[in-house]
């Protein structure tokens, strides 16, 4: 995972530049006011600070669709160029108007970075550490603020302080960012797959994962191209082929699905659990009972929660049956046919469509197609040459079984397994009808014996000695399946190549799919609540609180002026955030996003209530200063652990690949508009209702946020992005039924 970590660190430098800029403008505005005599023109002063917010808001409106069109990496390159140009213009700035223009350009760079870096990291990081890596932007932003505050403080101690140099220094680190985006950062593999550039996507994944075999994840990325579709939740019992028996002997072959493990000759079979509803595994875990006790609880939350409630330990069965990122093709006789599967040089030869191996490579490339057609006990005609829009499924003789259904299966990370099956049934007219299904499998039970919890399951007889697991399965049509193609009567599933689907571009009606719409409610809602939770107000009030605590007086006694003291106080405040963000990085993929939010938001509420009480009740100067200082420090530390990074992390995880850029832009636009509203209304609110009233409103908003998170925000830790979006689709439809 070293490659993914280094890429995430390099990408997060864009957030470091944002934090750097925030700190330099906060320090340099003191000197800008003196030179341009802005004491009598507070509107211009406010514009200088806020122009970057305006620029970020403007560019965010189209950054998402453009990134879906041209890619994530080109947008990050443009961001670094904008940072560099804004630094040069600020260094020159002969008057206020040029300075305002420079701040606007700077805002463009900030908007691209803040919007797209979380998306980029989510699309390149493995599920197991995606949360930790996506906390890096928060850490980098705070780190950039601290470094910049230290620089500005040192410059403020000089006899002739030059604010132009303070602001212009931004160009130096932006050059480093530019070099990294050009020479080090790869394009997002998910975006490459969405455009049919399979060879490039595979090469990027091999670099990010540090191994040659990435066939499982490549197949997952192809499946992630779908939006909507019919998805059902089923339940299977999985065990060794020679041990798992069925008391419905006549239907044993028909219902059996064959999986292949990493050891040659070792096969496993999966049998559906009969007599249970589509959400049986949720109710069995007790989640549905929890939902009934909380009437407004979103079914989506309980659906996600059921996956995380009783995760088994990493025992021998799990490592054998569900190898992380392993390919179950490895035990089969592979056809070492090297073919090109890429939009630039797509080849269709006979009955096989190419994987993505090219040239003379064999072992270094995928040795089998990502999807393999498996024959059943039903007579099947030979698959002939298909039209350009149809992918034919190549038979893999070594995976064929006499009777039953066979699947190709791959590990995709986070304990999830990707499989496909070809099933047939008799239609109303008595003719055989085929169906090609994709399955996401997730182990639920802990290996045991027939005396365990699975003995009560109907229709399944588990042997006493032998390992087996219970698995939940998300079953749906493959992402590139088109019913219209069935009119051409192909033998086997009708599929289209990713490059054919990519030509369609972003499909705006996809935004109204139930799962996408549901995800937008979660993403936009949590962004609004984050902005109105009070972080800007507390930051604004911090220097005054620390001044009351005597910090500024102490600094004055050692010869530091008021302007320098204010900057140093802000630097110390920022420094307090870094250990808390580091702890959040550690917990993000262990405790989870939802847990951190539900744990830290009550502390935010308590801190704000203490600030309200401290400003309403006369407690004496010392007690007031101590309570205020402690409350502010606790508020900062808890905010950067939860409500600071998690909204952006969630928004980068919950949308399908095809509309992820558009949806993240909608959420980011909400963020920037909320930021502008809070920034401009804060002085007005301070004058009308005072500090106690402002912090009281913030406490109410945090309480609303706590309720919203509890009822609406699911836990997404450790789950592949494609599985998350599939769960949103299922949860949205379940909510509509309820």
UniProtKB/TrEMBL annotation:
GO terms for cellular component: plant-type vacuole membrane. PROSITE patterns: MFS, SUGAR_TRANSPORT_1, SUGAR_TRANSPORT_2. Pfam families: Sugar_tr. The chain crosses the membrane at residues 43-62, 74-92, 98-121, 142-159, 165-185, 554-583, 595-617, 623-650, 662-682, 688-711. It comes from the Eukaryota. GO terms for molecular function: transmembrane transporter activity. Residues 7-717 form the Major facilitator superfamily (MFS) profile domain. It catalyses: D-glucose(out) + H(+)(in) = D-glucose(in) + H(+)(out); sucrose(out) + H(+)(in) = sucrose(in) + H(+)(out). SUPFAM superfamilies: MFS general substrate transporter. It is a multi-pass membrane protein. It is found in: Vacuole membrane. Residues 336-364 are annotated as: Disordered. Keywords: Membrane, Phosphoprotein, Sugar transport, Transmembrane, Transmembrane helix, Transport. Belongs to the major facilitator superfamily. Sugar transporter (TC 2.A.1.1) family. This is Sugar transporter.
């Amino acid at each position: 995972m070293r490659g993914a970590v280094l890429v995430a660190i390099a990408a997060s430098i864009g957030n470091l530049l944002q934090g750097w800029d925030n700190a330099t403008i906060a320090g340099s505005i003191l000197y800008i006011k003196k030179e341009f005599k802005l004491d009598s023109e507070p509107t211009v002063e406010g514009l200088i600070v806020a122009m970057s917010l305006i620029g970020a808001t403007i560019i965010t409106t189209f950054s998402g669709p453009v990134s879906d069109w041209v890619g994530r990496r080109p947008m990050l390159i443009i961001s670094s160029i904008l940072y560099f140009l804004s630094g040069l213009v600020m260094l020159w700035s002969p008057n206020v108007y040029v300075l305002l223009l420079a701040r606007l350009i700077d805002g463009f760079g900030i908007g691209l970075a803040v919007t797209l870096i979380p998306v980029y990291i989510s699309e390149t990081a493995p599920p197991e550490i995606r949360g930790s890596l996506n906390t890096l932007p928060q850490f980098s932003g705070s780190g950039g603020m601290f470094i910049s505050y230290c620089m500005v403080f040192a410059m403020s101690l000089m006899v002739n302080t030059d604010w132009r140099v303070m602001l212009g220094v931004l160009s130096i680190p932006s050059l480093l960012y530019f070099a990294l985006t050009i020479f080090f950062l790869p394009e997002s593999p998910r975006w490459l797959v969405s455009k049919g550039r399979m060879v490039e996507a595979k090469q990027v994944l091999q670099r990010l994962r540090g191994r040659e075999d990435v066939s499982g994840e490549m197949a997952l990325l192809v499946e992630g191209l779908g939006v909507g579709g019919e998805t059902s939740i089923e339940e299977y019992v999985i065990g060794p082929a020679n041990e798992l028996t069925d008391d419905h002997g006549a239907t044993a072959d028909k219902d059996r699905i064959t999986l292949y493990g990493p050891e040659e000759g070792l096969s496993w079979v999966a049998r559906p659990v009969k007599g249970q509803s589509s959400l049986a595994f949720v109710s069995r875990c007790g989640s549905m009972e929890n939902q009934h006790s909380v009437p407004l609880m979103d079914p989506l939350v309980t659906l996600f929660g059921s996956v995380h409630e009783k995760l088994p330990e990493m025992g021998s069965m799990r490592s054998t049956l569900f190898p992380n990122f392993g390919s179950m093709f490895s035990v089969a006789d592979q056809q070492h046919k090297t073919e090109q599967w890429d939009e630039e040089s797509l080849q269709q030869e006979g009955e096989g469509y190419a994987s993505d191996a090219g040239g003379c490579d064999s072992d270094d490339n995928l040795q089998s197609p990502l999807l393999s057609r498996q024959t059943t006990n039903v007579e099947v005609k030979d698959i002939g040459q298909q039209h350009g829009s149809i992918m034919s499924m190549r038979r893999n003789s070594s995976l064929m079984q006499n009777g039953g259904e066979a699947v190709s299966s791959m590990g995709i990370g986070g304990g999830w397994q990707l499989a496909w099956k070809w099933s047939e049934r008799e239609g109303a007219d008595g003719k055989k009808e085929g169906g090609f299904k994709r399955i996401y499998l997730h182990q639920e039970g802990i290996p045991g014996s027939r005396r365990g919890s699975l003995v009560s399951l109907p229709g399944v007889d588990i042997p006493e000695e032998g390992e087996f697991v219970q698995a939940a399965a998300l079953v749906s049509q493959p992402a590139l399946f088109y019913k219209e193609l069935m009119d051409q009567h192909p033998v086997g599933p009708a599929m289209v190549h990713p490059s054919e689907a990519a030509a369609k571009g972003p499909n705006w009606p996809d935004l109204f799919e139930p799962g996408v719409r549901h995800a937008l409610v979660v993403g936009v809602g949590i962004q609004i609540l984050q902005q109105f939770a009070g972080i800007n107000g507390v930051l604004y009030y911090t220097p005054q609180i620390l001044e009351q605590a005597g910090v500024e007086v102490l600094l004055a006694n050692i010869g530091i002026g008021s302007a320098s003291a204010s900057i140093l106080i802000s630097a110390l405040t920022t420094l307090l955030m870094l250990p808390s963000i580091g702890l959040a990085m550690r917990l993000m993929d262990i405790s989870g996003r939802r847990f951190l939010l539900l744990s830290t938001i009550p502390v935010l509420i308590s801190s704000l209530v203490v600030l309200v009480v401290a400003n309403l009740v006369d407690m004496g100067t010392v007690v007031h200063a101590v309570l205020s200082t402690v409350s502010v420090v606790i508020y900062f530390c808890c905010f950067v652990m939860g409500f600071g990074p998690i909204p952006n992390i969630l928004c980068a995880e919950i949308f399908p690949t095809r509309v992820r850029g558009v949806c993240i832009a909608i959420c980011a636009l909400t963020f920037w508009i909320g930021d502008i509203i809070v920034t401009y209304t804060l002085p007005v609110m301070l004058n009308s209702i005072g500090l106690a009233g402002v912090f009281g409103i913030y406490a109410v908003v945090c309480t609303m946020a706590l309720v919203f998170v509890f009822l609406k925000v699911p836990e997404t830790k450790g789950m592949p992005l494609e599985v998350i979006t599939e769960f949103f689709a299922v949860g949205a439809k379940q909510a509509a039924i309820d």
